[in-house]
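Appendix B: complex inputs.
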Amino acid sequence: MTPIVVIDHVSRHYRGGTTALDDVSTALQTDTITGLLGRNGAGKSTLMRIITGQEFVSSGSVRVDGQNPLENDAVLGRMMFVKESQVYPDIKVKRALEAASWFYPGWDAELADQLMRDFDLPANRALKKLSRGMHSAVGIVIGLAARAEITLFDEPYLGLDAVARQIFYDRLLADYAEHPRTILLSTHLIDEVANLLEHVIVIDRGRIVVDANADDLRGRAVIVSGRASAVDEFIAHRDVLVRQGLGSMATATINGPLDDLARARAREMNLDLGPVSLQEFVVRSSGDQRERISA
Amino acid sequence: MLDEGSPLFLQIADQLVSDIVDGTLAEGDRVPSTNEFAAFHRINPATAAKGINLLVDDGILEKRRGIGMFVVTGARDRLIDLRRKEFAEQYVDPLVTEARRIGIDTELLIEMIRHPPDRTRSVPSPHTIHPSEEGEAS
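Resulting structure:
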């Protein structure tokens, strides 16, 4: 795998002492869908703005295909950034699509038309007269139809209902399957997108706490439950994310994975092992300043 | 369908294996493409490919250039063999472990499988025990 975006020890401090990103290093692999997960204010949007050259770094470096994206038209023309609250000029929807088609060489007008129908968007309405959900849908239409080599979606679904979000996920997958490209999707609807992701980055308070293949994460964290004494014996010397007790019973979430031997041992000790969803894993991992988990 | 907790590519591979074992997919059949799997299960195509490639590596599926992926001749017998080994590990071993734990010896266990006892009555004890200790199990 080759990285197309490399973020090397990037920090971003604001005046007044706020630190948005604190020594962040990661990479986006070519033609993968990466999820950028974390709580509000964790630094997701800042990282995306830095990748797309819309914000300066305080220290460290960002390289997109080996180049600095800042004021670099050659690189910026290969990137599409759909923001949470995109501001458009006061024009009709179809004019906005037209303008995007001039800018992106890979623009697919047919796909744009199809998506307009999928989202039931009025081509002749002025952008500022659209509802919140329709406004988001326009961003998604442009984001997908541009077929930019690197596409970043920052919480692109504000105001979209569950049906419209599912249309977005389905169209994203279908078009990605036919035209693989690098996609970074920031979201806090983790359960909804978990299966779409090949790679997962979790940011917590400006730091990366998880940077791993989605399949490696799935099945790695395990919930152990049973008699407290047995649970404690089992989780000793393991990476425990959280432990809760109730009387003589206890449950603990551990960062595995558990091999067959450990599973057999748990069975002998009369312990139940249960899976942990990606969402639970992220929530557990974002709780405190944990060591970076990588695979 | 797919569940949380175990890697999706393993679930894709498991599902294909089940389909081959129960004959839904016959030897020589074309299996769905990576993109068909991805669209159907709403998962990343790379994940689907990983599951399919697992079976290619195991010699269960073969790639025919430009046409697609097919079930290899003899795949079913090999998978059934494998399934039987897994059956021993996943079902028989825990069964024996639990039986030992509650004092059921091998002979009684075999007897219980051969002639399932009437479950409404208490389980017969391997050794004659005092009547006062009986009647708890149901």
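Residues 289-295 of chain A have pLDDT under 50 and may be disordered.
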